[in-house]
Amino acid sequence: MKRMLVNATQQEELRVALVDGQKLYDLSIELPSREQKKANIYKGRIARIEPSLEACFVDYGAERHGFLPLKEISREYFLKNPSGGRINMREVLQEGQDIVVQVEKEERGNKGAALTTYISLAGRFLVLMPNNPRAGGVSRRIEGEERDQMKSIMDALVIPAGMGAIVRTAGLGRATEELQWDLDNLKIQWDEIVKAVLERPSPLLVYRESDPVTRALRDYFSDDIGEVLVDEPNAHSVASEYMQRFMPAEGGRRLKMYTDDIPLFTRYQIESQIESAYAHKVQLPSGGSIVIDYTEALVSVDINSARATRGGDIETTATNTNLEAADEIARQLRIRDIGGLIVIDFIDMEEPRNQRAVEDRLREAMKMDRARIQIGRLSRFGLLEMSRQRLRPSLSDSSHEVCPRCQG
Length: 408
What we know:
Blueprint: E1 2-7, E2 14-20, E3 23-30, E4 41-50, E5 55-59, E6 66-69, H1 89-92, E7 98-105, E8 114-116, E9 121-122, E10 126-129, E11 137-138, H2 144-156, E12 164-167, H3 176-199, E13 204-207, H4 212-220, E14 225-230, H5 233-246, H6 248-254, E15 255-257, H7 264-267, H8 271-276, E16 281-283, E17 289-294, E18 299-304, H9 314-336, E19 340-345, H10 352-366, E20 373-375, E21 383-388, H11 395-399
Parallel strand pairs: 1-14, 11-12, 14-15, 18-19
Antiparallel strand pairs: 1-2, 2-3, 4-5, 4-7, 4-13, 5-6, 7-8, 9-10, 10-12, 16-17, 17-18, 19-21, 20-21
Helix pairs in contact: 5-6, 9-10
């Protein structure tokens, strides 16, 4: 049975784990001491325009100014229509101008947050884009006949003029009335944001993303999760309130307060699996291993056969180890929330059909991931390049602090 485990007994951190039996397949760790800004909406002020970067820097109340590329600026903020083909930023924008932005990427190192003016508000079943009418449709994870079915339901929704909406995976199989109810709630939320923007000066936080428990239920809960176990009364109350509002049928049946003396994560034997997510090397069942290294430009993943003995020859051993590694790499990328460019060095295989099998296995394993992913093909050197969207601060970023003395 798949379960969602919410561990909130320690004030220093809140952990949400998704397990299948006793196998950890996704993890989120949040530290209350580190404020998460991603998806927050701010009324900011353009502090500096940099035409050479085709971007501007926005003072939205944080210590560092946020980075706002020209392509992420809606034309509703242009002071006049651009003349000619190429947009002159100083002609259509001005320093000191108020602008409503949403954080797309958190601050990292010495880089400020990445911002956008194309706002998105996530609900249980839909994502509303209040100033982007051309965006919208059905989640890329919904395919085939189900996709066609959801498109017909989308056509029946009453979407306000000038807005767009996307059906999330959780909206699959829901009635039009449920989706419309979710959409109407998001529209009310947007109206409140607009009111705050008009009434108060910048810089201003006008919308804060949901708390970690609510966000976990909104983003991770699905029909195949049999139980949601929460080990702390306040967190349980938050979860209960959300589920009664958005999923009354499932809420009372699946949400449970965990009260055993054995700690929740220990009970389901996932503490050691979480520890492996901090490790440089991860063992594979057959005796091989994967080694994960972080560099400034990319993340490299190396596969070693080591003691792997499955299969009677080198080609079979290499293929079987690579297939195991593909499953584990997909899992580790989710658990660690590794984003950016990733290069995987698979063990060399001679047979093209074995190479295709490994590529297909990796793509299949990645289907469980909520992040946007692009996967290349195996090169003649045995390397596979892929990119993954970072959904939140990575496990290493959220769990470690840079030493101010040695920068280690």
